[in-house]
Design brief:
The complex is a heterodimer.
Chain A (H helix, E strand, L loop, with lengths): L1 H28 L3 H4 L2 H24 L6 H6 L6 H6 L5 H22 L5 H25 L23 H30 L4 H32 L10 H26 L3 H24 L12 H26 L13 H33 L7 H24 L7 H7 L1 H17 L4 H26 L6 H7 L2 H21 L5 E7 L4 E4 L2 E12 L4 E11 L2 E6 L2 E5 L4 E5 L1 E5 L2 E7 L7 E8 L3 H18 L8 H7 L10
Antiparallel strand pairs in A: 1-10, 2-3, 3-4, 4-5, 4-6, 6-7, 8-9, 9-10
Helix pairs in contact in A: 1-3, 1-7, 3-6, 6-7, 6-8, 7-8, 7-12, 8-9, 8-11, 9-10, 9-20, 10-11, 10-13, 11-12, 13-14, 14-17, 16-17, 17-19, 19-20
Chain B lengths: L1 H11 L16 H12 L17 H15 L4 H12 L14 H29 L7 H11 L3
Helix pairs in contact in B: 2-3
The chains are: A alpha+beta, B mainly alpha.
Chain lengths: 657, 152
Amino acid sequence: MIVETGHFALVLALALAVVNAVVPLYGHYIRDSRLTAVAPSVALAGFGFVAYAFAALTYAHVVSDFSVVNVIENSASTKPLIYKITGVWGNHEGSMLLWVLILAIFAAAVAVAARGMPADLRSLVLCVQSWIASAFLLFILLTSDPFARIAQAPIEGQDLNPLLQDPGLAIHPPLLYLGYVGFSMTFSFAAAALIAGRIDAAWARFVRPWTLIAWIFLTLGIAMGSYWAYYTLGWGGFWFWDPVENASLMPWLAGTALLHSAVVMEKREALKIWTIFLAILAFSLSLVGTFLVRSGVLTSVHAFATDPMRGVFILLILVFFIGGSLALFAWRAGSLTPGGIFAPVSREGALVLNNLLLTTSCATVFTGTLYPLALEALTGQKISVGAPFFNATFVPLAIPLFLVMPFGQSLAWKRGDLLGAAQRLVLAFAAGLAGLLVFAAWKGAPALSYCLAGLAIYVIVGSFLDLGRRLSGGGLGNVWARGSGLPRSAYGTAIAHAGIGVTLLGLAASGWGQENILTMKPGDTAKIGPYAVHLDAIAPVNGPNYTAAVARGTIFEGVAALGAIEPSARFYPSRKMNRSDAGIATIGLGQLYMSIGTPSNGGVDARLYWKPLVTLIWIGALIMALGGALSLSDRRLRFGIASRARRSAGPTPQPAE
Amino acid sequence: MRRALALTLMLSWPLAAHAVQPNEILKNPVLEERARDLSAGLRCLVCQNQSIDDSNAELARDIRVLVREHLVAGDSDAQIRDFLVQRYGAFILLKPPFEAGTLLLWGTPFLVLIIGGAAILVAARRAKRERDPAVPLSAEEKKLLDEVLAGK
């Protein structure tokens, strides 16, 4: 019964979404504020219904109701409770429901939190959101009903894909969706601004928290996914340039560009048209990502849902929203007045360069991901575009980006002084060069690794120089007073920039990794990098819904035992699937990584890796997210504060960022 | 069908192992290093976007062994790649060759950089011209200004 009410709630949510998609727009058209004012309440009610539907599906999964097809296909009574809950979104139907739930949460957040923004703009934003919600609710109800029942319920379910029975992958989709769907907010803001014809610095300020939220979650989601791949896929890689990974990287690149161009728009009223375009682009790429993953057009490790009918439906959604918004853009963009002008060498100029490079890398990833499909469809020629292509094209674009990053932070707005900026960065150059030499002497070849490590040090030090100068500007005596006077977004910028530098350092270090592949028997010792692993025993272990062979090893450095390492090979009988669970020991910032195959003849094939500094890749992502969060907590950006501040008497001086 | 699939999977369970296996590794470390580099650029034909170096598939293993046999026989990297392309098509190369069909693929970064850069230059010029303070006042504006200055 609960399942049916969930289905019904979803239908009601669709009805409300359609109401919200039409009424505020009509109200705006006939200039009736009573009609536009319905949007927030309807959005809140819609959120209530979607949340109920999601709760109903979760209930069905938790009680293992095997009369529901979705539960049969993705659950089993023996599955641990945590994976019964996360299994709700570990499948196509449930993940689409999660997508819509997050969309509804964002809409509700706008309805509740964004009281400071003009009421008509808020209604239009909610209206555009409802268009998206209607499309996806329709998609779920017509092609991907999660509540479908079966007449004869089986006694046991088919269990969840073992790769997905993992804490990392349990939180990866929600994080990623918060990012994807978060960009629907910036999209809605852009579309609403185009409809209302009001695009100014205030708009940029209203939209910035939403861009930041989306960006933070997308950053975390990508990092989480990459760490998951690292420890479950068993060969120690963390980024494969897989189409599905690219699908999340593209909106991230566009979103990062948007974050930066919105700053220019907010401070200087310049780049308006471009910022609007990026807001549309970031969400369009999120939709493309959803399409790539959900349609099964690129069947890859991740795409566990494949159904061409759904593909066509999502393609229609894609065409409608991207085409519609671009048409609206083309129609309205011409009437936008260009904003403040600036010299090529200036903070704005650096941000334009940042945008050019980010957009180019985004376009490169886009072509690389879709080119094989297009080429096969057009000429029948089959080619592969894999990691070597992306490394050859993406890296040369990223390096100049890292080089100019600290420059941009040191340049003044409007008109900067390149030589002066370089002088201010002397410390960063020195640190980078020192880092390069130290790493070259310490770790040695490959050259690319120590050059990138030097670049990373330069970026990290450079990120803080501008902040340091502003803190110590009037002598060291009043650093504290100056520090508390600086906006939090200044700290956020410095920290986020340092974060990407930290990630770069971790990536650079992958060149110093070592591996040892061998067959081991209990009692054997394998050398790996500066350590050795002694295999103590291979033991069978029974989990709740799997059986496993666990290799128990001890790590030695010389003769001193450092700790244990326990890789295992699991077998899930209900799906007849294997899954390896790498044994990972974190030593300092590096990790010793060991994975095993299936034991045979008393021995086991083992892969051991020593990965120095590898944790920095994900620590850097966390630092980036922290920087984003600090920036988000900036008093000037808090929802509604902006407009209140504007109403207070007189202009207040704004420190440049 | 599903049972057949399950059976196949079950049978393949004891065989399942990780990518490069210990018994494949060549004695000569230099050749093995070359084998690994080559493998990283070759696609596992039955997998999605995985190199044969990363893949557990039987076919990937066969090609890994094939590559090593050729290396031991003294073939150059290019010869081995050509041999594999002849046998399996360019599909096997993860880094597509630069040719007519892939012109746009390899050209995208340059194209976007050039078009983007040009667009930025044009926009900057136009903005400067529109905001140029040296643009003289029109006759009407001048008259208005004179009136204001005359204090009317």
